[in-house]
């Protein structure tokens, strides 16, 4: 194990003495050369021999070099404020730089746990890699290609196999969370027994009706955001990680010298309740009842107050000792890891949800002072510490997965339903091809606008098609990367002057050379057009960036039909820049059935004929009474999860369990219409 990772917080991370392993033989120069044989162009500096001798002293027995980059290094000790030529090595234990300037071999070691973030940018003839450490920044300029650099960064991200070390105080806090979350179950049992002693009197804990309505509305949106994350990150520890992070953020928002206000505690409770940390039936029922409609049900206020008081105790306990420099949010770490593995783009969504929570918590009591603005900035930096690296990694991953136009179109045509959408995309592709042919023949070409409006009910594949369009544009040579960056009002709009512009520009930079997808874009338009709203500021900045980056950015806005119509008509700039409209209709019952079948195939379930008939009947009935909020694909996913739960209950008392039993869906596993 790397010596750094066994060190306490006070141990220096920089070492000049060679790392040795007591009683074991150190690798020889032939051993090292054998390791490096597979690495191309591993050294361009002149004194290769001295560098090898330095490695001989530095490497521990069985330590393996994974990758190298040569170039100019600006570190902490050996280079100071100047660039020095040498080689950057990443092993299965650590990262270090070696130089032999003036025939004198020197090295500087960086532990994996010390690196807080890595990013790179292209210069004129080089690539500059920037590594953020706890209290400093290290840069390395290389003349290698992007592929080599991205591979090297991936090695660093995966090399240690360990997250950054947490300070003892932070570990203590997380342990406290684990212990104190058990009190939620006690509160839940008290509510079930009709005991309400924990709840304060209305006078003590009152939140005015208007404020409660606003807090409830925002909490419901966050509920959907976190539910979506939980559906994609199935690690059982992930939910507890979200709860822990929200409590930590609550502590940071409230501040070290103040008790949470009634409104702040109400908002924290509203957000945490659907997450149900203890998975208790009573808490789940309370959450279902509270969030069933579009308004907060007055009859459930007393129960929520009891829950709120348990949250108050947790927030007060969390205040001491949070070290933001060493702390990493578990939600972001999980999302970033999945992004690196699969290119999912979840980190942006997770960061947006967490920052939205912090914003509205700060504004819950109706005010936002200078001190709170500074805390928000701190929280923003904490949340986005690693997302630039992740986004870059995702972009590289997607760029490596080059697809032909035929391959992308085949995937689009394989999607369930959406026949009119498929026809529109085929027509658009033909138009682009003809225009490119005219350009090549020096004939006048009609200017093309690729920005689009997606409108229709939820769960109909708008995000999927937006992602596919990015790949189409990349295959046609219109976009360099074609990645999708998804956001909404919460990810763009801030609560105070100046921050909205920063948020928008951050999102736009991530989306450059790809597609920016703005869901529920109509939320950016204020109810009172003449009033001051930061959503209007976001629109104006987006319009400006669409012009600034007209050859590098495609913007797709999405939402309900009527709302999107009002959104486009609200601003002449929007009407002029969005000329392509795609309508996403509800899936028909047979199409919903195909979606259900796909879930079953992916999970290796076999659906019996009687279960298939029951499922089609259920989907037909639900389709028949659909409204604009009909969930379509999302509804089918929820039903599939309910089916799996019912099958588990059916098999609970069955012994022995065979593979066939575990993988078979029967009619009794299909819920009734009243159960949905």
Concise description?
The chain has 676 residues and is an alpha/beta fold.
Which structural class matches the secondary elements?
alpha/beta
Q: How many structural domains are formed by the residues?
A: 4
Average pLDDT figure: 75
Strand numbers in spatial order across the main sheet: 4-3-2-1-7-6-5
Q: Work out the helix count.
A: 27
Major beta sheet, specifics? 7 strands, antiparallel
* C-alpha Rg (nearest Å): 28 Å
Spans of at least 5 consecutive residues with low confidence: 1-25, 40-46, 160-204, 388-400
Percent strand? 5-15%
- What is the β-strand count? 14
Distance between the termini: 52 Å
Describe the model:
It is built from 27 helices and 14 strands. The chain is of the alpha/beta class. The chain folds into four domains: 3-159, Pleckstrin-homology domain (PH domain)/Phosphotyrosine-binding domain (PTB) (PH-domain like); 168-392, no CATH class; 402-583, Rossmann fold (3-Layer(aba) Sandwich), CATH 3.40.50.300; 589-675, Orthogonal Bundle (Helicase, Ruva Protein, domain 3). The strands form three sheets. The chain has a seven-stranded antiparallel beta sheet with strand order 4-3-2-1-7-6-5. Strands 9-10-11-8-12 form a five-stranded parallel beta sheet, sandwiched between helices. A two-stranded parallel sheet has the order 13-14. A hairpin with a 6-residue loop joins strand 3 and strand 4 (106-110). It is globular, with a radius of gyration of 28 Å.
């Amino acid at each position: 194990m790397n010596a750094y990772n066994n060190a306490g917080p006070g141990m220096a991370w920089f070492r000049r003495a060679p790392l040795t392993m007591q009683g074991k033989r150190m690798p020889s120069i032939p051993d090292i050369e054998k390791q490096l044989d597979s690495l191309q162009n591993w050294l361009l500096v002149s004194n290769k021999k001295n560098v090898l001798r330095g490695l001989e002293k530095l490497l521990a027995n069985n330590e393996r070099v994974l990758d190298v980059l040569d170039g100019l290094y600006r570190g902490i000790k050996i280079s100071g404020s100047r660039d020095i030529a040498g080689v950057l090595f990443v092993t299965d234990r650590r990262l270090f730089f070696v130089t032999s300037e003036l025939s004198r071999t020197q090295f500087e070691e960086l532990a994996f746990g010390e690196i807080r973030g890595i990013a790179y940018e292209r210069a004129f003839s080089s690539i500059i890699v920037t590594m953020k450490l706890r209290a400093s920044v290290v840069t390395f300029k290389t003349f290698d290609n992007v592929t080599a650099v991205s591979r090297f960064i991936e090695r660093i991200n995966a090399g240690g196999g360990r997250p950054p070390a947490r300070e003892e105080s932070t570990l203590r806090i997380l342990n406290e969370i684990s212990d104190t979350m058990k009190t939620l179950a006690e509160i839940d049992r008290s509510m079930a027994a009709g005991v309400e002693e924990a709840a304060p009197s209305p006078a003590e804990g009152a939140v005015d009706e208007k404020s409660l309505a606003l807090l409830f509305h925002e909490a419901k949106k966050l509920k959907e955001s976190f539910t979506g994350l939980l559906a994609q990150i199935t690690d059982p520890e992930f939910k507890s990680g979200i709860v822990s992070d929200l409590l930590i953020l609550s502590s940071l928002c409230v501040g070290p010298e103040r008790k949470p206000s009634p409104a702040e505690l109400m908002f924290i409770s509203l957000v945490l309740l659907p997450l149900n940390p203890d998975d208790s039936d009573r808490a789940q029922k309370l959450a279902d009842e509270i969030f069933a409609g579009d308004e907060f049900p007055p009859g459930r206020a007393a129960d929520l107050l009891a829950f709120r008081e348990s949250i108050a105790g947790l927030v007060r306990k969390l205040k001491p000792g949070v070290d933001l420099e060493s702390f990493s949010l578990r939600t972001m770490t999980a999302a970033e890891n999945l992004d690196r593995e699969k290119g999912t783009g979840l980190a942006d969504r997770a960061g947006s949800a967490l920052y939205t929570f912090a914003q509205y918590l700060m504004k819950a009591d109706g005010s936002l002072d200078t001190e709170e603005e500074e805390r928000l900035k701190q929280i923003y930096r904490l949340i986005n510490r690693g997302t630039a690296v992740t986004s870059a990694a995702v972009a590289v991953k997607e760029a490596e997965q080059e697809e032909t136009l035929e391959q992308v179109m085949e995937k689009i045509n394989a999607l369930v339903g959406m026949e009119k959408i498929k026809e529109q995309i085929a027509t658009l592709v033909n138009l682009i091809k003809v225009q490119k042919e005219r350009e090549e023949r020096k004939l006048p070409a009609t200017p093309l606008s690729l920005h689009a409006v997606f409108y229709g009910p939820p769960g109909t594949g708008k995000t999927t098609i937006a992602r596919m369009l990015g790949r189409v544009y990349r295959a046609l040579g219109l976009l360099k990367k074609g990645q999708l960056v998804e956001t909404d009002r919460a990810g763009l709009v801030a609560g105070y002057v100046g921050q909205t512009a920063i948020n928008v520009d951050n999102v736009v930079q991530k989306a450059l050379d790809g597609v920016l997808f703005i869901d529920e874009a109509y939320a950016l338009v204020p109810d009172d057009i003449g009033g001051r709203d930061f959503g209007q500021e976001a629109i104006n900045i987006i319009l400006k960036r669409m012009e600034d980056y007209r050859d590098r950015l495609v913007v797709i806005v999405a939402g309900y039909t009527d709302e999107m119509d009002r959104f486009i008509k609200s601003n002449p700039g929007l009407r002029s820049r969005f000329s392509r409209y795609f309508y996403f209709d509800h899936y028909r019952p047979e199409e919903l059935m195909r979606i259900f079948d796909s879930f079953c195939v992916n999970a290796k379930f076999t659906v019996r004929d009687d279960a298939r008939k029951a499922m089609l009947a259920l989907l037909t009935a639900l389709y028949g009474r659909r409204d604009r909020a009909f969930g379509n694909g999302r509804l089918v996913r929820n039903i599939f999860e309910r089916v799996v739960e019912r099958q588990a209950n059916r098999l609970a008392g069955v012994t022995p369990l065979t593979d066939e039993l575990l993988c078979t869906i029967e009619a009794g596993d299909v819920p009734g219409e009243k159960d949905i």
